[in-house]
Amino acid sequence: MDRSARSAADLRRLWVVSLVSAWLTGACGDPRETSVLVTVRNGPGAPSPDELRVSIYDDGGLLFHDEGFSLPAPTQRIYPILGTIVAYPGLTDGIIRLGLRGHAAGVAVSHGSGQVASAPGRQVAVTIELLPGRFVDGDGDGVPDPIDNCPGAHNPDQVGCPDRRDAPADGDAGTGQDAPTFDTPPGPLGAPCRGPGDCVSGQCVDGVCCATARCALCQSCAGGDPGTCTHLPASAEDNVPAGACANEFACDGQGSCARKNGSTCVAPGDCLSKQCVDRICCGIACTGLCLSCAPLGECAPVADRDDPDTCTGTSTCDSGGTCRAKNGQVCKTAADCASGFCVDRRCCATACDGPCEQCGASGTCVPVAAGTDPDDDCGTFNCSGEARCAAACGPVCDQACKTSAHCAQGTCVRDLSLTSPCRTNCECIRNICLLGLCD
Question: Which of 31, 341, 383, 416 has the greatest CB tally within 10 Å of its CB?
Fold first, then answer.
């Protein structure tokens, strides 16, 4: 890729996720790209930073400049691990160099640097420890001396070493003499290389001189023992050849390729986590009622629906992920029901607490039948059959009135006591009118 085509916008997309993990992304999208997994530690005596700034270079020059992102409070970290950064800088050349600065309240309080050989199509890993204070920068170009390709010459872009005739020394003008040149002999195992001719072994693999001509799947010659093929770390991708173990797959740290969390699976052995739940690779075992790993691979409660594995049939998962009885099922208390309502000893969709309402067999609220009032909502009247109390009556023995009442002048009144004058049986408390008196 033409390095001049890398714009600032290409190199400055940043996502911050849980803990202190972040992605720095370039714009090439080529399967030959190297990705860098950086673990950041807070060293002894280093103040706790609230912001981290990152610059990355390779043999061709600057890749990322002073990219910054906030860190969570110390109580949210796995101290002294501040977190991880995954950088996708595009096609890289030779050695990848990283400079980090920790800031607190806008002031630089710590620094760290490291380097690792690029490995086309693979992920390489490096751990950087932050030390207290500012980094040493003898030439004032903003690049820490330990990773500066020319620590005696001001070259912030790190594009080659400036001609020594143009570089001031100790505040004086240059001498005008050419900088000396050297022939570099072939390197030993683990030394950075660009091709077989750079190595005593005659084998350049993953950007370092290697003991073998090629590493197996999910191995790298630039890993924990440079020069020897070793397993890529767990969750790292292997893109040699392109897509060999990437996308929904990643290496398991033991030299094998398996599915990432959230990918479909048939058996536990298909997954990096060794947990296949609901046919999805899951981060944990995720057992128990109303729990599911679908669709993202994260164990979470099943809410307001059935869990086919653990809570179905006459039960369902409530809004909080607890298995309870469905509407229409027999209940004793509201806690028995997924809806939270136990009405007339039946789980109901609503509170169903209006006058002349009851919970039907299906678990929905329905009107009480006309001429009845099981909950005694209406005084001397009965329910109208339309979820409300009757408001008037006609004949003396109208069913709009309770059995203990009768209709008098359009309203329901209490039945008459014994020996009271009467005209019909329904006027009397014992429903007997004999010779004009209640008997």
Answer: 383
Q: What is the pLDDT of residues 65-108, one digit of tens each?
A: 889 888 876 654 445 778 888 888 888 778 899 999 988 887 78
Rounded to two decimals, what is the model's pTM? 0.46
In angstroms, what CA-CA distances link 326 with 289, 309, 363, 398?
A: 15, 16, 8, 39
The answer to whether residue 2 sits within a structural domain is yes
Q: How many domains does the chain have?
A: 3
